[in-house]
Amino acid sequence: MIMDWMEYTILTTTEASELISQILLDAGSTGTMIEDKNDVAANQRPEGQWDIIDEAIAQRIGDDVKVTGYFEADDKLPDRVAFIESELRRLRGMTLGMDLGKLEVLRHDVAEQDWTESWKAAFRPFRLGAHMVVRPSWEKADLRPGDHEIEIDPGMAFGTGTHETTGLCVELVEKYVKPGDRVIDIGTGTGILAIAAAHMGAKPVLATDLDAVAVRVAAENVKINGFEDVIDVRCGDLLEVVEESGDVVIANIISDVIIMLAQPVRQRIVDGGLFICSGISVERRDDVLRALAEARFEVIDAPIRGEWCAMAARKR
């Protein structure tokens, strides 16, 4: 049975967003979504758990914090809306010691959709590097001689590898990872880079991520792609669960984390081994080069695509 829904958004502030969210939940919303550009800034810090944050996201969100609830368009909807409007009037008349923002209301009627089918319509096979082709399970890819397929479920989480930084990293993996290399992928996400390394003949491969959901997703993708005997996926923050040393260490994270890792990652790379890093904005390129030089790495490759840069650095 297809149902119609009402999307109910209130413009507020960071400080008041939880309060507004609770009002929507009390009114019977099936859940709430908070869009706050301050969250983007917070996750840009090294301790942030997002691999890459595009500044365009913050610009799209705008200055207002948007708190959105979803309500089924049934006979109870008028009462739910009346409750919300009553609560907002009550808030406007109170002195709470916090900035409530505009408290402007935006309503949008939405038809229920099959979101799985929407994902399928949006996600098509695409090429990473010269010979890695990423595809969903329901699509067939046009392969060239020497191509390797990476099957990814786009409904899981953490992106599907389309960001420039992933493409740059895959190019370096194809260029420098050799059969038999021991590879460590830090912040693996969906596991694309670990799987790409395995396709190049790396064995064993260790993939780590701080997020338990990412670890589960990566492990599922490793199994789907037939590399369970090659890739070990572990949950942990950066290098904390890595005891082994690798011929190649890969990190597609953000510039500040690469800078922070430059010195400690030496202990997990064999002499003459490589540190392949990406997620580096062009604006921070010199900062990363300086950190790698201070950690006694020699940068041998540093491709740039758009606003992003990747590097392959050899341990001296």
| First-last Cα distance | 64 Å
Strand content: 25-35%
Number of strands: 15
Q: Class by helix and strand content?
A: alpha/beta
Radius of gyration: 23 Å
Helix content: 25-40%
Shape, principal axes of CA atoms: elongated
Question: In the CATH scheme, what's the topology name of the largest domain?
Answer: Rossmann fold
What is the name of the CATH architecture of the largest domain? 3-Layer(aba) Sandwich
Low confidence ranges = 40-61
Commentary on this structure:
- By secondary structure, the chain is α/β, with parallel strands linked by helices.
- The chain folds into two domains: 4-112, 2-Layer Sandwich (Alpha-Beta Plaits), CATH 3.30.70; 151-315, Vaccinia Virus protein VP39 (Rossmann fold, 3-Layer(aba) Sandwich).
- The chain has ten helices and 15 strands.
- It has helices at residues 17-26, 37-43, 55-61, 77-92, 115-122, 164-176, 192-199, 212-224, 255-261, 285-294; strands at residues 4-12, 32-35, 65-72, 104-111, 126-128, 132-135, 148-151, 183-186, 205-209, 231-235, 246-252, 269-281, 297-301, 304-305, 308-315.
- The strands form three sheets. Strands 8, 9, 10, 11, 12, 13, 14 and 15 form an eight-stranded mixed sheet that branches.
- Strand 5 and strand 6 form a beta hairpin.
- Helix 2 (37-43) packs antiparallel against helix 3 (55-61) and helix 6 packs parallel to helix 7 (192-199).
- The termini are far apart.
- The relative contact order is 0.11.
- Residues 40-61 have low confidence and may be disordered.
